[in-house]
Amino acid sequence: MATVFDLRAYRQEPRFVFFDRRDLNRLLTLYSRRVTMGEWKDYAMGTGDGMAMFSVFRRASDRPAYTVVKVAAGDRGEPEYMVYDGSRRLRRGTSLGAVLDLFEPRLRLV
To answer: What CA–CA distances, in Å, run from 25 to 12, 15, 50, 86, 89?
Structure first.
């Protein structure tokens, strides 16, 4: 005789991840600074299973120049942030401020 399995017991519930107010404030502050400098023109936000994405564009019809990704909390309970340039990961960290330091201008001696 055949055994009937309830597949609902084996499915994982989708994990929803969103940028909170502090994250959005930091991302949009950086975005507005770069827009005033003429570097960035547009942005897009999206979500996937267990991740949220914030992409910036140099031109509206172009591929994203950079993408900031927030991944769901792992075993340690804190989310992880990453910055991508296309498919290449530039920086990874547990705080958004640490990964956004990549975009801060470096002081130079003149």
So the answer is: 32, 23, 21, 24, 23
Q: Is residue 3 part of a domain?
A: no
Q: What is the pLDDT of residues 63-77, one digit of tens each?
A: 899 999 999 876 667
**C-alpha dist (Å) from residue 77 to 14, 18, 60, 61, 82:** 17, 15, 36, 37, 16
Tokens of 36: 């005033």
pTM of the entire structure?
0.80
Q: How far apart are CA 64 and CA 94, in angstroms?
A: 23
Domain that holds residue 85: 14-103
Does residue 73 sit within a domain?
yes
| pLDDT tens-digit map of 13-26 | 767 889 999 999 99
Q: Which residues contact 85 (CB under 8 A, 6 or more apart)?
A: 65, 66
Neighbours of 45 (CB within 10 A): 13
Pairwise CA distance, residues 66 & 34, whole Å: 12
